[in-house]
Request: fold
Amino acid sequence: MIATLTGKVLIRGLDRAVIDVAGVGYEVFLTTDGLTRLPDSSEEVFLHISTQVREDAIVLYGFLDSEEKDMFLHLTSVSGIGPKLGLAALSGMRVAELCRAIAARDIKLLSSMQGVGKKTAERICVELKDKVGDLVAGGVELVETTGDGGPGASSTVADVLSALGNLGYSDPVSRKSLTSVKRRLGDETFYALSVEDLIRECLRSMA
Reply:
């Protein structure tokens, strides 16, 4: 089974990309967010791969973060959720948000995902509530980008995540750093920091 791929983006489509690995092009299906985060064709990309074997095909699903792949595997283990629906769910919601929704049994939010009805959302909560704990412990469920820190708090956190992403840090690592800073400084001080100061604090916590 193919577990990872490292290569250059040869073709980028609406729901998939072709990754050139030593002259061999691998068709990989990705989430909407994953496709937008792929580097330019001149740069290498590392993807975590879930290989799905069917009677008529071998299909590769790619993820930039291992936590996203783990959530995909959790979702597709639920009765009624296949790979396409699992990928669609991750396209509409980040892993951290999914973890929170499952832990809180937020059926309404889960039902808002494309192709997920109320009964499927209930099955997700029942079957995955205990399983997503490893993702939360690993630093996925971290700082909210839509929290109650007051005006501008959401955009500040989002700007910091974007800046750290541009510096090469993955989303889970960036969020884990933000959580560490928030716990150390407290909510009031945390949300009062400027984007530049918050980036410095995050980089200091990761040093």
About this structure: Strands lie at 4-12, 16-21, 24-29, 44-53, 58-63. The two ends are 36 Å apart (CA to CA).
